[in-house]
Design brief:
Blueprint (H helix, E strand, L loop, with lengths): L1 E7 L6 E5 L4 E4 L5 H10 L7 E5 L5 H4 L2 H7 L4 E3 L1 H9 L12 E3 L6 E2 L5 E7 L8 E9 L2 E8 L7 H7 L4 E5 L4 H5 L5 H8 L7 H11 L6 E5 L8 H14 L10 E4 L9 E3 L14
Parallel strand pairs: 3-4, 4-5, 5-6, 10-11, 11-12, 12-13
Antiparallel strand pairs: 1-2, 1-14, 2-3, 7-8, 8-9, 9-10
Helix pairs in contact: 1-3, 8-9
């Protein structure tokens, strides 16, 4: 069974873990490398080799720990050439990725991660970075199969994004801000326009509409990511998404979809992502 944990989600740093008892991958490394290692140690995961690190885009809150993780764990770093070029130009990455550990991906080309059972497909996500990709992750061992999708730092929802989100049973999707909180808040006007623009971030309502459009009965986990500290609350993001899922015919909570707003600066619990042949493990009822 595949395991998922969020190590951090938001402008302070983003990092997501997917792994089995024998190997794992990371999606983004926007937290200090030593902090990533400590979180893995605290959760009993440090002994599991990280086979690959996948980067969505070149902003500091997604790459801060990439070079250290690459060096300390002898871990190749995968992303598009444009993102690698952007990382080279970002002073937030104090040490560059070693040439020997750089790997290049092409958008919408399926990639099999060596010595794992992961298949990764990067796809375009609009954002005001040099380039930005989401990741559609397939994992299969024997009859077990998991389909997982990450979409973050997304200025608008495109047909390409919808195509991959519709296929996934486990989602990490951006729910960055509440529009009223943003527009009536303290951000300067240029920053409000940037956040709301096509190179910015998805609002709670935009995320909810994407979930409403793509809902299907096999959805099991939805993790709301990259929440703004100033223009959102976990409860507001959760309620907006939950309402949309319910309207689409979904059931949120016990024996339904596990919906969670990921914390910005602290790791989540370790979630088990059931494959198609697995018995679904339901959490206990909670608020």
């Amino acid at each position: 069974m595949l395991r998922f944990m969020c190590l951090g989600s938001g402008s302070s740093g983003n990092c997501y873990y997917l792994g089995t008892e024998r190997y794992a991958i990371l999606l983004d490394a926007g937290i200090a490398g030593r902090t990533i290692k400590q979180i893995l140690k605290d959760n009993g995961l440090i002994h599991i080799p990280i086979r690959a690190l996948f980067i969505t885009h070149d902003h500091t809150d997604h790459i801060r720990g990439a070079s250290m993780i690459s060096s300390l764990m002898d871990c190749p770093v995968y992303t598009t050439k444009e993102v690698h070029d952007g990382m080279d130009r970002n002073y937030g990455l104090q040490k560059k990725i070693p040439t020997i550990n750089r790997r290049y991906l092409q958008r919408e080309e399926v990639f099999d991660v060596p010595t794992t059972h992961f298949r990764i497909t990067p796809f375009s996500v609009p954002h005001d970075s040099r380039d930005n990709v989401g990741y559609f992750v397939e994992w299969q061992e024997g009859s077990e199969q998991v389909k997982f999708c990450l979409v973050t730092d997304c200025g608008r929802v495109t047909d390409v994004i919808l195509r991959y989100v519709k296929q996934a049973d486990h989602l990490v999707v951006e729910s960055n801000h509440d529009v009223d909180m943003l527009m009536n808040g303290s951000y300067p006007n240029y920053l409000k326009l940037r956040v709301r623009g096509e190179g910015g971030h998805l609002s709670n309502d935009e995320c909810a509409e994407m979930l409403r459009t793509t809902f299907h009965p096999s959805l099991r986990h939805i993790f709301l990511c990259h929440l703004s500290a100033d223009n959102n609350t976990p409860d507001l993001a959760y309620r907006t998404a939950s309402k949309a899922l319910t309207e689409a015919g979904g059931k949120v909570g016990y024996q339904g979809i596990t919906l969670a707003a990921l914390a910005r600066t602290s790791p989540s619990q370790l979630y088990y992502l059931a494959g198609e042949s697995d018995e679904i493990l339901f959490p206990e009822e909670s608020d």
